[in-house]
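User: Hey, quick favor. My workstation is busy. Could you predict this chain's structure for me?
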Amino acid sequence: MIASWEPAAAGVLRLPSGRLVRGRGLRRPLPEGPVPTFALACLAVLDGVPGREAVAYVREHYASHTVETPWQRRFVARFR
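Assistant: No problem, here it is.
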């Protein structure tokens, strides 16, 4: 069974399509539930946000410190 999350719950991001996903920072422990397999910004790209805009989208709608390292930002910008 797939868990659903409240849109206002900590760690939940609403993608442009309306889908809800849950994330966490690298320095934070894993939350209860299934182990995440994709980065939030890459999910935003898969949901239609252009790669070069995905980091800004996730930072605006999820957390300002998302995509924590330069290599992560480069990866997301090139992700497709």
